[in-house]
Amino acid sequence: MKKRITLSLIIALAIVVLDQITKYLARTQIGPYESIELLPMLNLVNVQNRGAAFGMFRSFGNMFFISVSIAALIFMSWVIIADKEDHRIFALLAGGAAGNLIDRLYLGYVVDFVDVAVAGHHWPAFNVADSALSIGMALMVISILGKKR
After folding, report:
1. How confident is the model at residue 115 (pLDDT cuts 50, 70, 90)?
2. Any idea which residues carry the catalytic annotation?
């Protein structure tokens, strides 16, 4: 149990540290309307996301998202302590939730900076925490589907 919790904590903390460093760089090195092309389909931007995924539910307000994030972190911590199989998945989710929660508490919004565009169509900007959340959710779906078999 101690190894599981330690590994989960290391995964979550690594995500938070990488997330916060990259967001800091985006905030301080990229102007609000600036776009830096890394590859033909990949740009760096500086977006203030005041909503949930893709900026949805912006009208719910920052306190709503802070409350949901804290509740999710409590739940994920409980699962990490109690679950033997999927603790790494929940560590990804906890790291992503914590990274975005820090932004909401400190800035009042989440910093998004990765912009993917294909043929003029842009995927909503995202960050390291969002990536960890997306990967964690995908792995959770795979795990659930695998258990049903």
Report:
1. very high
2. 112, 130
**DSSP secondary structure of the chain:** -HHHHHHHHHHHHHHHHHHHHHHHHHHHHS-TT--EEEETTEEEEEEEE-SSGGGTTGGG-HHHHHHHHHHHHHHHHHHHHH-SSSHHHHHHHHHHHHHHHHHHHHTSSEEEEEEEEETTEEPPPB-HHHHHHHHHHHHHHHHHHHHH-
Contact in structure between 143 and 88 (CB atoms under 8 Å): no
Mean pLDDT, range 112-117, rounded to an integer: 94
